[in-house]
């Protein structure tokens, strides 16, 4: 066989194989590679977008937490003020009740003291009359007796 003919046949076969590969094999492979590159790029873009959305969501959550904490602090402060107001009101009512009870007790004590004074005056008057009767050794008439007791009461006041 001739070396030139073999070389020419190999070149023709090579060119035919190259043409066949370039025409029928290579386009689907490049198309598949391009499609895969496109899907990878889309996946990376989606991952970046998801990462940025996650960061934005975290910021929104943080902001909502701050708002919720501020609202809770406000509610707690309001509740504390309301509780303090209720305690102050209860304290004022208790003080008013104590003052009223004290006033009532003082009035009762004053009334009891007044009654005791009246009873003491009557007893002193009766003792004075009894002592005077013994001294005089005679009985005083009832009207005169009542008049003397009233005069003695008035003097003792």
TrEMBL record:
Residues 40-67, 102-133 form a coiled coil. GO terms for molecular function: proton-transporting ATP synthase activity, rotational mechanism; proton-transporting ATPase activity, rotational mechanism. One of its GO terms (cellular component) is endomembrane system. It is found in: Cell membrane; Endomembrane system. NCBIfam families: ATP_synt_b (TIGR01144), PRK05759.1-2 (NF004411). Belongs to the ATPase B chain family. This is ATP synthase subunit b. The gene is atpF.
């Amino acid at each position: 066989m001739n070396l030139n003919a073999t070389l020419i046949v190999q070149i023709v076969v090579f060119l035919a194989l190259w043409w066949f590969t370039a025409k029928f094999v290579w386009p689907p492979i490049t198309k598949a590679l391009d499609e895969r590159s496109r899907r990878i790029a889309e996946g990376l873009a989606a991952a970046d977008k998801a990462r940025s959305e996650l960061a934005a969501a975290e910021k929104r959550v943080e902001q909502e937490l701050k708002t919720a904490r501020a609202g809770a602090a406000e509610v707690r402060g309001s509740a504390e003020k309301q509780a303090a107001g209720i305690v102050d009101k209860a304290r004022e009512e208790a003080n008013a009740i104590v003052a009223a009870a004290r006033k009532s007790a003082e009035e009762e004590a004053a009334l009891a003291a007044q009654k005791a004074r009246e009873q003491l005056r009557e007893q002193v008057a009766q003792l004075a009359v009894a002592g005077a009767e013994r001294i005089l050794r005679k009985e005083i008439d009832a009207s005169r007796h009542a008049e003397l007791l009233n005069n003695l009461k008035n003097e003792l006041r």
